[in-house]
Design a protein that fits this description.
- This protein is α+β, with helices and mostly antiparallel strands.
- The chain folds into five domains: 10-72, Chemotaxis Receptor Methyltransferase Cher, domain 1 (Orthogonal Bundle); 83-275, Rossmann fold, CATH 3.40.50.150; 304-407, Beta-Lactamase (2-Layer Sandwich), CATH 3.30.450; 411-460; 510-618, PAS domain (Beta-Lactamase, 2-Layer Sandwich), CATH 3.30.450.20.
- It is built from 19 helices and 20 strands.
- A seven-stranded mixed β-sheet has the order 6-2-1-7-8-10-9.
- The longest helix is centred in the last third of the chain and has 100 residues, at 409-508.
Amino acid sequence: MTAATEKHSGDFEGLLHFLKEERGFDFTGYKRPSLMRRIDKRMQETGHTSYDEYGTFLRHAPAEFNELFNTILINVTSFFRDEVAWAFLRDEIVPQIVSAREGPEPIRIWSTGCATGEEAFSLAMMFAEALGEEEFRRRVKIYATDIDEDALAKGRQARYSAKQLEPVPEELRGRYFDRSNGSFQFRKDLRRAVIFGRHDLIQDPPISRIDLLASRNTLMYFDTPTQSWILADFHFALRDDGFLFLGKSEALAARTDLFAPVDGRRRIFAKMPRRDVRQRPTDREELGVDGAMPTDPLLRDTGFDAGPITQMVIDDEGILRLVNLPARAMFSLTQRDVGRPFKDLDVSFRPVELRSRIEQAARDRHTVTLREVEWPNGSDLRYVDVQVTPLTATTGEQVGVGITFTDVTRYRQLQQALHESRREIETSYEELQSTVEELETTNEELQSTNEELETTNEELHSTNEELETTNEELQSTNEELETMNEELLIRGHDLNDANSFLDAVLSSLHAGVVVVDSNLEVQAWNQGARELWGLTQDEAVGQHFLNLDIGLPVDRLRAPIRAALASETDGVPPLRVDAVNRRGRQLEYVVTFTPLAAHDGVRQGVILMMQAAESAETR
């Protein structure tokens, strides 16, 4: 290997270590060629040429982590992918699992690398068909795990498009999915049986007592030692009669004595029980390449490793000697850290300074206890109880100290919640007391208001009676108005007829007829007057007669008109005047003056009749 290649490889391993320390993703067990290709792809897209440069970019651009993980974690899945294998699982394996777990015993299923959940819901439909929906809800738990949080979030929604549901048979689609807003959602009552959670196959301990473990096309991304480590975890997770369901691209299980093929072509395997069945490897270094368990297991170390409490052991020289699985997970320790001086590890001073406590416990030979130590872990704040206990051999010689960490975050949260609840109860009690007093006052006010309302109701009742009387009167008045309206309508018709008759009379006279009122304003102007003087009715009516500009000498008519208005008799002699008609012809005209009197004898105007003298004499 050249120096440049070694440097390049070293930079790459440093980047993987940075990803593990910074975000908790351990990619050291992935196949290097494919892993490098995917990281190189992101480096090209972001314009970086070295792994060190890209690592620096990640430190200053946290959003790039999501893009990088989405590139590395390829989520390729679908419902009932590889239909032949699923059909064999449905017809041969599921009935065996169901018959072996008769009665109330639960059925536990684990789908690793579940991506967006299609595989987990395929298993749910298969077991619901075999057990019936009621038994399925009561007995089946499906653990769907993946390292990709974004994919898990989509899986928890259980919502898929019509295209994604194409591999699902029509009868299953109609039975297990509800249509909502153009997409399909897995039924909520059955969805509760599928539990989504983040799980790293390399770092996290396996889920135990599993009947069927589906890990399809997940192992192929890891190198051979890591595959052996994961297969050993799968062996530990399965019950003795459990089954392993792999993808068609994975055949490694056929080369290990942990599993026996049930159908190699469909990649379904049965667990091979072993004499050391309770033991699982604590580190990848304890496995051979073929994935077999160690031939000389240390039961003491295994029991220590499987303990539920976080523990570690330090010898009297300050060297870390034992670390169990919860401790490795909590403090990101590996088997390579065993044998190192404890003071060189971060756990010696974080979350609390332990070196002085170790010296105190060793010196006083008494357990040192630290209660509810705060431990910031990213955005979360955890609390742990720490015990440093001196370890003494049967000979009385002190051989080291044991340190245990007990997570009491939940207990602390419950205490805080209890304290807050008590405070809220006290506040609520005071508010309740105040509310009761206000309620009593309000009740008295309501009583008074009710009495006022009763009085008002009586007044309204009386007012209503008055309104009814008024309404009857108004109804009678309305009838009278209707009668008057009918009479006025008849009179209006009569008036129209009279006006029409008067217009006809005036129009029939060949002489010019003009009617003026007592103010000498023109009230009527017939067709004969228009023919004589050239003015239309619209131009003459409403005008002062003496102001009209016509061929008739109107000033000479002033005195006769006044005389006709003032005379108590009708004896006003006709008047002969020379005038020029509208055609410019000068003739002598005879004008007669007839008073217009009302029924009471009051003069209301004068009727003037004008005609040529020769025509008047002829008549």
